[in-house]
Structures are given as C-alpha cells and as structure tokens.
Amino acid sequence: MEGKATALVFSILLVSLSSTAFSKPLTPSWPESESQTLTLLETASETSITLPLVHRDALAFNTTREALFKLRLQRDAARIKTLTAMAAAAKKKGADLSSSIISGYSQGIFGEYLALVGVGTPPQYEYMNLDTGSNLVWIQCAPCMKCYNQTRPIFNPKKSKTFAPVSCTSHLCPPSPLNCSRRHTCLYGSAYGDKSTTIGEFSIETLTFGRTRVPNMLLGCGRYNKGQFSGSAGILGLGRLDESFTVQTSRRFGGKFSYCFVDLFESTKKSWLMFGDSAVSRTAVYTPLLSNPHPHSVLGTYYYVELIGISVGGARVPEIRPSLFKFDSSGDGGVLIDSGTAVTRLVQPAYIALRDAFRRAINLKRVGDEESGFDTCYDLSKKKVKVPSVVLHFRNADVSLSMKNVMLPVSESGISCLAFMKSDDNSTIIGSIQQQGFRVVFDVPGSRIGFAPGSCA
C-alpha cells in the first residue's frame, strides 16, 4: 500500500417510501448541477470527501411507491435466480477469471444505491449502481448503438482527454478471439438473468469522487445495452475479483470499505459509503470473512460469512443450526452479504423455523397479503404492537435487528410483513433491509466483516 490510505466518504440520499404515501408519484431528487455538487464539497478535508448519492428508486419516473415496492421484489427474485444459476454454471464449465469476464457474471438486477461519479477528464457526471455482488465497472458510452434510457447524458469518450481503449494485445484483455473488434479493441459482454445485457469495449479512464481523482481504472464502455437499470449509467462493482473497484484501488485504499444505509422510510437522513483506513470501525463486532471452497474463481466474487443461529424474542431458535448454512463439497450453500438484494433469503428449514417462532412470539392474527410475496403479515395500523426481537448470530458477532429491519410496510393500509423470505436453493443472502442502520465494514486484508449499529450519523 502506498502510504496511508486516503478515505473516500460518500453520502446517500434516500427517497421516502412511507406507508402513507404509496400512491404518490415519485419525484427524482439530486443536485441540480455538477457545479452545485462541487460547491458543497469546498469545505471537505483532503482525507474525507463527501458526495451526494441517491437511492435507485429516485430515478424512476411516472410510477407509484407501491409499484416500486413490487418491482423491488421482482428485482430480488431475478437476482437470486441468477446467483444460483451462476454457481451451477461455474461447477459445470470450470469457469476461470478470464471466461468470467467474458460472460459478465450474470447477476440479475444490480445494486440498490447510486453514486454520482465523474467519468473522464474533464469529468462527465454519471449515476452508477453500487454492487458488492459483482466486479465489472462499466457505463453506457456514446456513440451508443442501442441503449436504455438514463437520467443524465450518456458519457462521450471523445470529450475526455484520459479515455484510452484497451487493445486486443494488452495483458488486460482476456485471451480469446471473441474479444477483439475490427478496430483491435478489447470487447466484453454481459448477459443478466432478467435478459438485460451490456456489450462494449474495455478502456482505461479516470474516475472522480468529489475532488479525488482515481486514474487508470479499467472501465467497460457499453455500446449495446438494454435492461432494468432504473436510469443509472452503469455499475460500480465492489466485489472481490481483480476488475472490481475495490481490488483495482487496493494499493491506494487498502481493500477496505464500509457503508451505512439508513431506513428506507427516512427522507431526511443520509447514508454513506467510505473507502480507506477510516472505513474500519473500532466499535463494530467482527465476524470472519469466508471464501467459497469451490475452486472456480467466479464464486470468489462474494463476501461470505458464517451464520451459526438466530434468536427470536430473546431465545435461540433450536431448529436453526450452523449446519444449515455450511458449504457442501461442490460450493453450494453458504451465507453472503449483498448490497443488491433487498430482502434477506434464508434456506428453507431456517426460514420456516424463524417464521414459526416469530408467529408464536408476536401472538397477533395474521392478515393475507398474497401480492406482496410474504406469508407472515399483520395490520399494525390500529394499535401499538411490541415486535419480537430478532438477533442474527454470526461467528463472534451478534447482530440485533431493530423493528425496521424485521417488519416491512407493504401497503398504504398499514400492513407490515416479516422481512425475510425462503431461498430457492441452499444459499442464504443477507439483504440491504437487514443491513439498514448498521455500519457494515468490509475489511478484506483483515479477512473480516463488521457490524456497528446506529452508525449512519
């Protein structure tokens, strides 16, 4: 690492999704101009840089909050499906890093939070989805032969002094005849689980976060793109493989980052994302960071942890045993922390045990809400209800969830549901709803993930 790692700090502006306003159309909220954004940064210190971000739903036009909630669950379903398919494909095909880049790590719909990032020199500001479950950093580029609609102008490489296409003969280009264009530039392609796609060329470019420039980034320049990216320009991959932003900047920021997502229903509080030494919290409880035992590197993307049990109402659920969350010999199973999945998925035996224990502890009559996709829902609009506590027991780290992590409002009538679902396979995914209100620390060189409650201030 070259000297002390500089810390990058970003703030996330979340759109209110209160249960009293599900039928109201959304109005996007972001800085009116790049100059306004940079004016806000003039007082920032050299090692702590703040940048406004938005929740991805802020880029949705002509829709209601209730419709966005249903779309969120659809995005989750697509993502979970492709996470499973990717693991199965890795076992069958023996994928390595190069072929993984070609196939693009099918990830369904990407992260839920957006960063306003300057691309090129001078910077052209673009919204990019943050995703801990993928690696490739890419945006839509002009001339765009086929592109989806995004809220900001498409990045124009001709206006950047630092844009440089990667040649087919470069060591950065995977060795394959399919990777070379007629202009001898290195190509990439990604196909996602919901049939979204991006195809383009690799380039070397400078990214800007506030006043901090990050040069020589490997960036995918998408020329043919389609799919459900909610108006963002592309993806900022934060996974564990070489082409991710995390690894590409590891010499500068040490492979350390953390974020804190505030409650989805808060419209005034800010969340943030931080890189560097300052990202590591002294007050967090830490659990070991695991790697998938399967040898194929495509599964090395994810941040795995060890879940050993769950408590409801102050008592451990006896049916939820550590063995439910173990990897098997083929790499199936495990527990991963993911910013791009909203609702936590538990393997079926664990989910059923959690659900049944929660139903017994809350002692209320359930209401049906088939459209939401949840099976444990209650009308909480008429009286105050004490919601049973839920604690996730990771190895060496107990994470106590708040009511906002446990119960999710799903309609304007006051219906709230247990914010967990069963997984369709042997994997467990800890989603962003259960991470809200915690500072989640990814300390890759320390091989650990940390949780510090109430750290979004």
TrEMBL record:
PROSITE patterns: PEPTIDASE_A1. Residues 113-452 form the Peptidase A1 domain. Belongs to the peptidase A1 family. It holds the Pfam family TAXi_N. The keyword Protease applies. This is Peptidase A1 domain-containing protein. InterPro entries: Aspartic_peptidase_A1 (IPR001461), PEPTIDASE_A1 (IPR033121), Peptidase_aspartic_dom_sf (IPR021109), Plant_Aspart_Prot_A1 (IPR051708), TAXi_C (IPR032799), TAXi_N (IPR032861). Keywords: Hydrolase, Protease, Signal. It comes from the Eukaryota. The active site is at D131, D338. GO terms for biological process: proteolysis. The keyword Hydrolase applies. One of its GO terms (molecular function) is aspartic-type endopeptidase activity. Residues 1-23 form the signal peptide. The lineage of its organism: Eukaryota, Viridiplantae, Streptophyta, Embryophyta, Tracheophyta.
